[in-house]
């Protein structure tokens, strides 16, 4: 019961952060500091790497994601470690995508979680090319340590940088 109550409170906080108080005022932007504060669930900290199944020599996955979408390097998306699937509300074929707040190197971005994978030890998330370039424009690092990933409640987030 406690879990259900905290989930309901979290959902209410998220709705308030997105839509603001019901006073007829303008709808607040999704990418506000209020949304960052409304991230639900315990954050996971670990390493992030990049995946692109179309690069030669890549051993992981293929062009289809766990959600049924085709891999797209130009959107804000990521794959979480398979063992974290439940924490993110499930990432299932044909289901609505899940969303997360990813924080690293002083930057924050909302990503669509549309895939899962076994990932290498210590890694909790694989970012697609666009998302990795946001954190590492030259793609020289390969792996970013101390990445914080927080599940976001709800299904209607707009992926992209958080201002």
UniProtKB/TrEMBL annotation:
Domain RlpA-like protein double-psi beta-barrel residues, every copy: 45-143
Keyword check for Ubl conjugation: no
Keywords annotated in UniProt: Signal
Keyword check for Signal: yes
Pfam families: DPBB_1
InterPro entries in UniProt: RlpA-like_DPBB, RlpA-like_sf
Signal peptide span: 1-24
PANTHER family per UniProt: ENDOLYTIC PEPTIDOGLYCAN TRANSGLYCOSYLASE RLPA, ENDOLYTIC PEPTIDOGLYCAN TRANSGLYCOSYLASE RLPA-RELATED
Protein name in the entry: RlpA-like protein double-psi beta-barrel domain-containing protein
Organism per entry: Bradyrhizobium uaiense
């Amino acid at each position: 019961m406690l879990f259900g109550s905290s989930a309901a409170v979290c959902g209410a906080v998220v709705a308030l952060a997105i839509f603001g108080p019901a006073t007829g005022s303008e709808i607040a932007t999704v990418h506000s500091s209020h949304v960052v504060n409304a991230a639900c669930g315990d954050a996971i900290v670990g390493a992030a790497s990049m995946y692109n199944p179309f690069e030669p020599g890549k051993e992981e996955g293929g062009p289809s994601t766990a959600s049924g979408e085709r891999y797209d390097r130009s959107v804000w998306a990521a794959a979480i470690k398979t063992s974290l699937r439940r924490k993110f509300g499930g990432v299932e074929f044909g289901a609505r995508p899940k969303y997360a707040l990813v924080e690293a190197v002083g930057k924050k971005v909302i990503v669509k979680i549309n895939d899962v994978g076994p990932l290498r030890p210590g890694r909790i998330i694989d970012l697609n090319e666009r998302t990795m370039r946001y954190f590492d424009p030259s793609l020289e690092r390969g792996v970013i340590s101390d990445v914080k990933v927080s599940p976001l409640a709800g299904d209607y987030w707009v992926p992209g940088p958080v201002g």
